[in-house]
């Protein structure tokens, strides 16, 4: 004798399958949205001032001593560095200005820096180098030091550089 499976069991199975498929798609969308949010927002933004390239000249006149942090992307390497660097900024109470260079013409930005903020030819040559993360030390409204590819360094090395260049106050 053949056992007959009730239609109700098939309907329950189809409902479970549909609910499971919808749940998987929802979780995928939630994951992508969360990842996109964290990739588009830098941890450094939480402890710095964000501005665009047009505001930089006015800011440099009003606040002659600051650190300009410029980033050209959001890779996992940069994200890891930025988490550590944001803690460093908070610990040393640094005045950091953040510019996201992914939304601007980097060549025009570099020319603006060279023409308005650099008086040393050696520093001018460093401005033209496109890197993922650059830090410019402004003192008296002029760039005094440039650190390129800082995201490839560890925080101990960065601390040594910042101390050597007197970018942090050791009161």
**Side-by-side strand order of the widest sheet:** 1-3-2-4-5
Arithmetic mean of pLDDT: 89
Helices and strands, in order, run as HEHEHEHHEEH
Cα shape = elongated
Report on this model:
It contains six helices and five strands; from the N terminus they run H-E-H-E-H-E-H-H-E-E-H. It is α/β, with parallel strands linked by helices. It has a five-stranded mixed sheet, covered by helices on one side.
Short description:
This protein is α/β, with parallel strands linked by helices and 171 residues long. It contains 6 helices and 5 strands, in the order H-E-H-E-H-E-H-H-E-E-H. The chain is elongated and about 95 Å long.
Element layout with pairings:
Layout: H1 7-40, E1 49-50, H2 56-62, E2 66-71, H3 76-92, E3 96-100, H4 106-117, H5 121-127, E4 133-139, E5 142-148, H6 155-164
Parallel strand pairs: 1-3, 2-3
Antiparallel strand pairs: 2-4, 4-5
Which key terms come to mind for this protein?
171 residues, alpha/beta, 6 helices, 5 strands
């Amino acid at each position: 004798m053949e056992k007959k499976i009730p239609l109700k069991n098939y309907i329950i199975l189809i409902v479970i399958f549909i609910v499971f498929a919808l749940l998987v798609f929802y979780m995928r969308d939630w994951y992508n949205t969360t990842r996109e949010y964290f990739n588009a927002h830098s941890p450094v933004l939480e402890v710095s001032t964000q501005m665009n390239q047009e505001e930089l000249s006015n800011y440099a006149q009003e606040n002659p001593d600051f650190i300009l942090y410029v980033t050209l992307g959001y890779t996992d390497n940069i994200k890891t560095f930025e988490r550590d660097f944001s803690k460093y900024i908070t610990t040393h109470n640094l005045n950091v200005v953040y510019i996201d260079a992914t939304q601007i013409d980097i060549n025009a930005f570099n020319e603006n820096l060279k023409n308005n903020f650099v008086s040393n030819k050696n520093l001018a040559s460093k401005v033209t180098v496109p890197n993922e993360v650059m830090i410019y030390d402004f003192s008296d409204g002029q760039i005094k030091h440039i650190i390129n590819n800082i995201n490839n360094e560890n925080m101990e090395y960065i601390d040594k550089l910042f101390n050597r260049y007197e970018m942090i106050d050791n009161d």
